[in-house]
Batch of 2 targets.
Target 1
Amino acid sequence: MKISLLIILLATALTSHAQPTPESARRPANAEVIDSLVLPELPKGKTRADFDRDHKVTTRLTDGDTVTEYRLKGKLYKMVVKPKSGPSYIMIDEKGEGKFVPMGEPGTKISVPMWVIHSW
């Protein structure tokens, strides 16, 4: 009787000790936790639909190839071409001049994120 009671107590102690620790216990002491993320508000008078109207994605089939065109405010800036056979490739207008170059080809420069801050 004493041995079975000891085994039960020992098993209970081991299972309670083996339970996973809460997320906060595994976090380093100097870690910062963001409880709520506040998103910026849209400018007054603008809705999400207004911003979506500026962006347009069109997919078309030409000679068995699938071409997806990406436009911002009506201006074509990127094309993704998926040939009938072979790997797909991306053509990008780096300077906005209408000259498309293959992205990721050897000898080409890395595509750096470019955002328009202001235009008139």
Target 2
Amino acid sequence: MKQNEIKQLSNDDLKSRVSLMNEQYEKMKLSHKVTPLENPLQIRAMRKTIARLNTEITKRSAEA
């Protein structure tokens, strides 16, 4: 998810996406421990996307 896509989302969408992606991230980490993923870089990409979403939420709350 690109930064300009994130900026277009509403606050509620951001929060729901963060919670959804956190769930997916935890499942992905667990499945990677059991049987290694074909592309383990997906874990890093998801973690960075979650960080981008959280950064945008923090930025918006600081502006308000």
